[in-house]
Amino acid sequence: MSVLRRSFLVAAAGTALLLAAVPVSxxxxxxxxxxxxxxxxxxxxxxxxxxxxxxxxxxxxLTPTGAPFPAKANDHAVAPLYIVVYPSSYPGWTLSCMxxxxxxxxxxxxxxxxxxxxxxxxxGTDPAAVPGHDHLIGLASTGGDWNVAxxxxxxxxxxxxxxxxxxxxxxxxxxxxxxxxxISVDSGIIFNCSAVPGSLYWKGTPI
Length: 207
Description:
Helix content is 23%, strand content 29%.
């Protein structure tokens, strides 16, 4: 597992330079990162959609340009962020990030690579065939464990049938993990982000 964690940390830093983004059309749901401000000058950041795991409602998170990576924080000041990865057999709803290369180029390939390496029986062996993933976080306004620093856990299905359910709440996630239909992989990654309104996301420029 230590090798996997090191791979996550090394690859995450370089993925943005190595992957080119390919726009993916959304059918009513937001998908992909959008840039706000002048990121090239260190102002602004990247916004991406997520689900509030207490309500299942959409929310949006912004990672500021130039934020420390990986972030350093005390354990009590870190909240979990879950990345739920879906295989090509899933029913096809719009995901928070889609494609490899995809519309979240700083981590699409990294997450897909982890899925195919750890659960090839579900995701296959070609990362480019993994359709994408969703983000689940807890918001303080709905009783979640909200912090600025986020510890990333990658959620992988252990069978294709389980992936036919769209997991958008913590209860669904716990049921899948408790029933053996999914596993949680500690990425070893901690990064900083903040909650922002949806209006800011839609004003941003798609990557």
